[in-house]
UniProtKB/TrEMBL annotation:
Residues 150-179 form the 4Fe-4S ferredoxin-type domain. It comes from the Bacteria. GO terms for molecular function: 2 iron, 2 sulfur cluster binding; electron transfer activity. InterPro entries: 2Fe-2S_ferredoxin-like_sf, 2Fe2S_fd_BS, 4Fe4S_Fe-S-bd, Beta-grasp_dom_sf, Helical_ferredxn, SDH/FRD_Iron-Sulfur, Succ_DH/fum_Rdtase_N. PROSITE patterns: 2FE2S_FER_1, 4FE4S_FER_2. The lineage of its organism: Bacteria, Pseudomonadati, Bacteroidota, Flavobacteriia, Flavobacteriales. PANTHER family: SUCCINATE DEHYDROGENASE, SUCCINATE DEHYDROGENASE IRON-SULFUR PROTEIN. SUPFAM superfamilies: 2Fe-2S ferredoxin-like, alpha-helical ferredoxin. Pfam families: Fer2_3, Fer4_8. This is Fumarate reductase. NCBIfam families: PRK07570.1 (NF005746). One of its GO terms (biological process) is respiratory electron transport chain.
Length: 249
């Protein structure tokens, strides 16, 4: 199959970027989207041009590094699918494909399709952890956790931090990411000790990073490759209000 690509090229975060057109022919429709970009880069290097920079690591839908906007959709046209799990059979022969980096004030473009997601790291560092004594692990049955609670915590913990929620949100909000990290810890006994400090610190850091506010459009849940529920945002708001109430007492 043949594809006409329009790819965002930007030398660095200080430079102005632009869309550049490329044509690729005789591609295997079973090729992954990132393998297609690899093929393009091999062609560019052979021709003496600069290859296209893009983030990737595991290529198994686990790490969340491969995110990009494909025809205006975070991670592309398939629901609950990361860019690395997307294949060319999802496109038509001869189709024009627009490829851009995730757009958000808190995600500056480093080069081409590569963005700086370190704002997420700073949110996690502000409170997305549990302070426990190290040493011998307690018996697995020492702390009772119901099956339903464990499943709900796991559903929230499934967030891979790709940033699709931010790129999709018209406000550039990180509420879904932050709330998922807060929820999966507050549901479990080990996370309850620091629940108030955690939510206050993580929300404050989220605001410091210049993410926008959530206006409940739920676009984040629609484009999330892991299907993280917006109910996490409701729990974060509850936890935040609870923390403020007890801080005032």
């Amino acid at each position: 199959m043949d594809l006409h690509l329009k790819i965002w090229r930007q030398k660095d975060r200080q430079s102005e970027g632009k869309l550049v057109s490329y044509d690729l022919k005789e591609l295997n429709p079973h090729m992954s989207f990132l393998e297609m970009l690899d093929t393009l880069n091999e062609k560019l290097i052979t021709e003496g041009d600069e290859p296209v920079e893009f983030d990737h690591d595991c290529r198994e839908g686990i790490c969340g590094q491969c995110g990009m906007m494909i025809n205006g959709i975070a991670h592309g046209p398939l629901k609950n699918t990361t860019t690395c799990q997307l294949h060319l059979r999802s496109f038509k022969d001869g189709e024009t494909v627009l490829i851009e980096p995730f757009r958000a004030e808190a995600f500056p473009v480093k080069k081409d399709l590569k963005i700086d997601r370190s704002a997420f790291d700073r949110i996690i560092s502000s409170g997305g952890f549990v302070s426990v004594n190290t040493g011998q692990a307690p018996d697995a049955t020492a702390i009772a956790v119901t099956h339903q609670t464990a499943e709900e915590a796991f559903d929230s913990a499934a967030c891979i931090g790709c940033g699709a929620c931010v790129a999709t949100c018209k406000n550039g909000s990180a509420a879904l990411f932050t709330s998922a990290k807060i929820t999966h810890m507050v549901l479990l006994p080990q996370g309850k000790e620091e629940r108030s400090a955690r939510v206050l610190n993580m929300v404050a850091q989220m605001d410091t990073e210049l993410f926008g506010h959530c206006s409940n459009t739920e676009a984040c849940e629609v484009e999330c490759p892991q299907g993280i529920s917006v109910l996490n945002i409701a729990r974060m708001n509850y936890e935040y209000g609870r923390a403020l109430f007890f801080r005032k007492k």
